[in-house]
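Reply to dn_fold:

You asked what the input looked like. This is it:
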Amino acid sequence: MSFRLAQRLQGLPQPATIAMSAKARALKAQGIDVISLALGEPDFPSPPEAVEAAYQAGLRGDTKYPPVGGQPALKAAVAKKFLDENGLTYAPEEILIANGGKQLIYNAFAATIDPGDEVIVPAPYWVSYPIIAQMMGGVSVPVICREEDRFRLRAKALQEAITPRTRWLVMNFPNNPSGAIMEREDLEAIADVLRAAPHVLVMADEIYEHLTFDGRRHVSLAAIAPDLKDRILTINGMAKAYAMTGWRVGFCGGPAPLIKAMTSIQSNATSGICTLAQAGAVAALGTPDAARRAMRDVYQSRRDLVVSALRAMPHVTCAMPEGAFYAFPGVAASFGKTSAGGRLIVDDIAFAEAVLEEAHVSVVPGSAFGQTGHIRLSVAASDALLVEACARIRRFLDGLH
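and this is what came back:
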């Protein structure tokens, strides 16, 4: 029997992060010692307060269907977090709790994108933004953020990309995969461009906001430009700063009409999210930020270790990541060379595949993030693993000819 799939799925790529992890698992299943730096997942445990709160919620019978938009207690905790940490005020009807940040992106695009609508995505970008936009019939418009600009979005480049069909601008800073941040003056310049384009909505994905290095602090666009707040959707969640990836708790604040539409989408897709996970999120949001600072300091130390090693390698450039937990080195100087295993390195995909097969280190090609000539590797691993991974990559590069 043959199946006719929806046209919107034609040509829909599998996220490269998932694909590379699958290849790494296949090699591991053969008994090969593979170091996987492909997935962006903290290697810290979830807060014990969250675990205990979820357990107690189960004991007291908090296991029934929750409100679609989120438990009142979690909405209140999210509102407090937005006010205290971001200077943003949101009423309960302006907040939505979802199954991770990805469902919030899906809900928002599903509620607003018509076929042909354009979504501006600064590149490099997280792999799912253009894929979800494409699923909704939208057209992804990448805007290249240059390594010499520290991968920050420049106002002039944004202005040149906006058309009458532009529906969304996605702002993911601190950025996955580059680690770039946007300083206050950068955001003020972006806000000026947006004021001249009142038809453009803004998705500010701030999931890495607590992971900023060298004394830098994240600033929310909606706080910088309160006059634009009624068309900014600010997305966050528990995954990165709280090491709660598997709990699947994302949250956002935005204009009430948009939140209402997104809640309707969620109602017919998944309904509300796990009650126990919501109880754990309430507890985690109420914990002191000392643990988050300690986690950030570890990531900064690992970043320094990896970037130092990468910069000492032949055929590699590497801008200093200012946040998140990735490095995004340039490897274009190796193109046209042949590996010790006889593989011609024609592009970043071939580079990543050769490093996996010959050096047994799993990384993600930069082209998956809209920026060819680079690879992404996660520093969310132990120092010992990172040292060994860098040593293997160095030996691979030394073997190119």
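The longest helix spans residues 290-311.
Hope that clears it up.
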